[in-house]
Amino acid sequence: MKYDRGPYGGFAVRCGVPVKLTVGTPWTINYYELDRYQENGGANADTGIGPSGIYVFPTAENQIRIAIKTIETDGSYLAEEQFNIDMGYDVAGRFIRYTVLDTGSELSVYAGSDLVVRIAFSDAGTYDVFAEDKDEEYYKTAVLYNADGTEIGSVDGNARIAVKSGIALMQRGDVPGGISYDNILIETYEPEQTPPEEETPDLPDDPEPSAPTDPEPNTPTGESGMLVFAVGVILLAALALHSRARLAMRQKGRAEEEQNT
User: Which residues make beta-bridge pairs with 218?
Assistant: First the structure.
């Protein structure tokens, strides 16, 4: 984007719906219309353009203005808080690549590779000031940090940073050289999904191999023991019968010898 310099030329993000003023002249406030806050007696905030959102304007040779739209209790009820960031080099009248990174809970604005501001926003809710808002939600709290991470300002409870939002490009008034945009790119990044780790069941540790043990002696018990015992009885009985038979045969032989003599 290239803009010579001035208070109302640049772009806006987190923009909601246009609204119609309920005091003074019933203007519909689009993104290039003055909010008429101070014109209607407002004294608690800054006046600017647009109904809602975060605005980025190169307002001086080395300065970028960040403006956050707000709801107020005086004036036209619609105003803004302005934060001027000194970049330390010329940002007006030449092309600079502006990048906005929006994570859903904070937003970072870059000029080239330099971080201009980081804005953390929270506390989503509705307002009942303008009928056009209906049930539109806005983040009401914003905290701003510079490139060093130091807090440089905040909007507490009355910011109009749209939850469901759009972007806007605008210029108000005659500016020498006007405003130029080139190579506008909008990208959406899905967060990387980390596959869940597969759960492995806890297995018991392998037991240590035990040393071989000597086999127990084969002590017969039960039926096998009774079988061995029975075999031993039969063997003894057979030996006793064999001895008796030999004795009887000897006695018979002696009797026959006595008869023959």
Answer: none
Return the C-alpha torsion angle 124, 129, 133, 136, nearest 10.
Answer: 10
Query: Which residues touch 140 (CB under 8 Å, ≥6 apart)?
Result: 123, 124, 125, 155, 157, 158, 159, 161
**Residue 126 DSSP label:** -
Residue 248: what residue type?
A: A
Residue pLDDT, tens place only, 101-129: 999 999 999 999 999 999 999 999 999 99
SS3 of the chain: helix, strand, coil, percent, to 5: 15, 35, 50
In terms of C-beta density within 10 A (0-12 exposed, 13-18 middle, 19 or more buried), how is residue 154 classed? Answer: middle
* Cα–Cα distance measured from residue 119 to residue 153, given in angstroms and rounded to the nearest whole number: 10
pLDDT digits (tens, 9 = 90+) for 8-30: 889 999 999 999 999 988 899 99
User: Which residues fall within 8 angstroms of residue 108, CB to CB, at 6 or more apart?
Assistant: 100, 101, 115, 117, 118, 119
Please give the model's pTM, rounded to 2 decimal places. Answer: 0.73
CA distance linking residue 247 with residue 229, whole number of Å: 28
How many whole angstroms separate alpha carbon 106 and alpha carbon 188?
15
